[in-house]
Amino acid sequence: MSTVAPVVDIDWARIRADFPLLRREVHGKPLIYFDSANTGQKPACVIEKVDAFYRNHNANVSRAVHALGSEATEAYEATRVRLAKHLNVASEDLVLTSGTTFAINLVAYSWGLPRLKAGDVVLLTRMEHHANIVPWQLICERTGATIRVADLHPDGSLDLDALYAAMTPEVKLLGVAHVSNVLGTINPVAAICKEARKRGITSVVDGSQALPHMAVDIAAIGCDFYAFTGHKMCGPTGTGALWARRELLASMPPFLGGGEMIKEVRYDGTVFADPPHRFEAGTPNIAGHVGLGAAVTYLDDIGMDAISAREATLLAHLTEEMTAIDGVRIIGTAQRKAAVVSFLVEGAHAHDLATLLDLEGVAVRSGHHCAHPLMAFYGVPATCRASLAFYNTHDEIEAFAAALRKVRRLLG
């Protein structure tokens, strides 16, 4: 007898109605928003939570004893607790940030800069976002360490044998995407981090594209750092967090200095606050993180397993429709994928293709998707990317396919 609980039937039309922007038109046609990997749309409850904060509770956090200050601090810290429960970690190990880019830079400068030296290696994969490449390049330039790259199979899955073979004693840090923003590939990060830990390699997982699509249990993954962005998971822009092992956070110097992250300041020295506040200098995006807390609550109320199942059916439908169109090349066909499809049309530049699709009301992203090395691996300058979320529909997929066929005819 199966021990897996069945996914409860959900009225996805009702869920879609929670997103005000999805009701608008573009160029006189109903919007088909297939760019959720770029940023997710926001349900009304998130928008209303941010609005209510500014209307009724606006004050700075952790600085005032008056009622508004206490309310703001309570609401802000409640998001930290909400996120921790969502990710199965302790709230005191979560640093609230402006997103993944800030979080990985924090690791690079607070962990990497004091520790890396000439002869050390930072191991990355070919599918990394620039946010998990450029910070390490900057640190390597300053420390003398070097970057090593693990390649992929042609289908966009990681070559795990090559990755593990690259984990030599010189490697001090591994950076790996949980889910590729270009290919949709879901990497087996728990197995990868286990191999890294066996070899004494510190692991940094970029979870930006994972949290919108699936349940993420950081404790089960076994990484050392996990970074993610709020705006891709129905939250406001300028939000996110870094989770880190407590012993690592306790050993790291601050990334930025200023107010809030201190216990005592004298001109002859400063005593820093305990983590995580040690890494949260200055006034944060309070309203944004209050909105992120609402977004996490919204996702949990639906259920991440239900969201994953919904998106799997949408991805299968989208892939079937696109595969049936002559001249369409899908890039990234790994067996385990999130609802992200990068593609090209024979004889068409990605930007031209996206522009013509926009005239049909379809929003897709075109370009290198902040992944120049991955584009080079596939020998293309750019791709179009259709990225779905649970609020998309099967009708939209069919309308997109019709628009793509029309554009294909226009482009000859």
Automatic annotation (TrEMBL):
Xref: Pfam families: Aminotran_5
Q: Which UniProt keywords apply?
A: Pyridoxal phosphate, Transferase
Q: What is its EC number?
A: 2.8.1.7
Which domain of life does the protein's organism represent?
Bacteria
Recorded hits in InterPro entries, A to Z, give: Aminotrans_V_dom, Aminotrans_V_PyrdxlP_BS, Cys_dSase_SufS, PyrdxlP-dep_Trfase, PyrdxlP-dep_Trfase_major, PyrdxlP-dep_Trfase_small
Show the catalytic activity: (sulfur carrier)-H + L-cysteine = (sulfur carrier)-SH + L-alanine
Any idea what this protein is called?
A: Cysteine desulfurase
SUPFAM superfamilies noted in UniProt: PLP-dependent transferases
**Listed cofactors:** pyridoxal 5'-phosphate
UniProt record similarity statement: Belongs to the class-V pyridoxal-phosphate-dependent aminotransferase family. Csd subfamily.
Entry's transmembrane regions: none
What is this protein's function per UniProt?
Catalyzes the removal of elemental sulfur and selenium atoms from L-cysteine, L-cystine, L-selenocysteine, and L-selenocystine to produce L-alanine.
Gene for this protein? sufS
Which Gene Ontology MF annotations are present? cysteine desulfurase activity; pyridoxal phosphate binding
